[in-house]
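User: I'm new to structure prediction. If I give you an amino acid sequence, what do you actually give back? Let's try with this one:
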Amino acid sequence: MLVFARRLFFSDRMTTTATKTAIILMNTGSPSAPTEVAVRAYLREFLSDRRIIELPAWFWQPILNRVILPKRPAKSAERYRQVWMPEGSPLVVHMNRVARELRARLPEHITVETAMRVGFPDVNETMGRLRAAGFERFLFWPLFAQYSTQTTESALDAVREYMAAQSQSLNWGVIGAYWDSPGFIEALAKVVETYRTPEHHLVMSFHGIPYSSIQKGSPYERHCLGTAERLAQALDIGPKDFSIAYQSRFGKGRWLQPYLTEHVEQLLRSGIDKLDVACLSFSVDCLETLEEIGIELKKHFLAAGGKELHLLPCMNVEEAALSFYQKHSAGYKCQYNTHRIEEAVAKFDILTPKEG
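Assistant: Good question. You get back a string of structure tokens that encode the predicted 3D arrangement of the chain. For your 356 residues, that looks like this:
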């Protein structure tokens, strides 16, 4: 397990002084609106991230600007419109709800905010508000149970960029991947057990990443398989009752397999026509769960002859999830400051894409 911050219980640390501390929940982000203009701006930034697209800029940028951005935003905007909530993007809405509910459970000197890698609020905006309010310690928590450069490292890039630009020393820390935390598995199992239909086959879906990342040494696949194994044990289900697949493939290159769409087709051919799908890479529901699985995959499966496909909700603000977040975050020490940015980079930056 990758751990980026030492444990020190808040109750122990705060007996003499209550330093104003902020826990900043991080996620990838979302467009500001389900419109072609907003989605194009989001995709331009998101797909320019060297962590997301591990290709040289001289090769990738012409493809992005001449092929993808002229066409993809209109289609993606329509997808977003199908799941957009009155309060905004599902991912942002659910992240804000988690922050609000978790904040209410913690002592007054500890707040909880959100920051997105792409979109609003970003690290600069969130940090500006917190520092103006007098907060002195900052604990960043990328809400990705399994580590990958495309998610965890991309989020931490924003933190490193902010810290490197500061002249004043700031106390900060990071909570790393938590896929093997017993508390996480217990919470995940409670949420899945609450919503699943026992006689349905359970598909544990993880966000895919390019296989080239695994070849470079990414532990992501191992983290996914470990999550699935531990969850199956917690649910007391056998190998015939569940399977693993990877969703959200982008492009034509080789990604982690089996691909989810092909996997459910194979399940149907084997006589399994009732599915529950749990998206285990996502802490909150978003486009990739609600639309990709809850609408598109369900439509595809039923059209192919399947009888039922149920999307299970993510942890969101379920009581089990909030209890885990509260216990897991309690006690992480802000062990870095801006004068030690190189040390922090060296500890976090496991797979740095090479330019050129």
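You can read the tokens as a compact description of the fold. Here is one thing that stands out. Strands lie at 21-29, 110-118, 137-142, 171-174, 201-207, 242-247, 274-279, 308-312.
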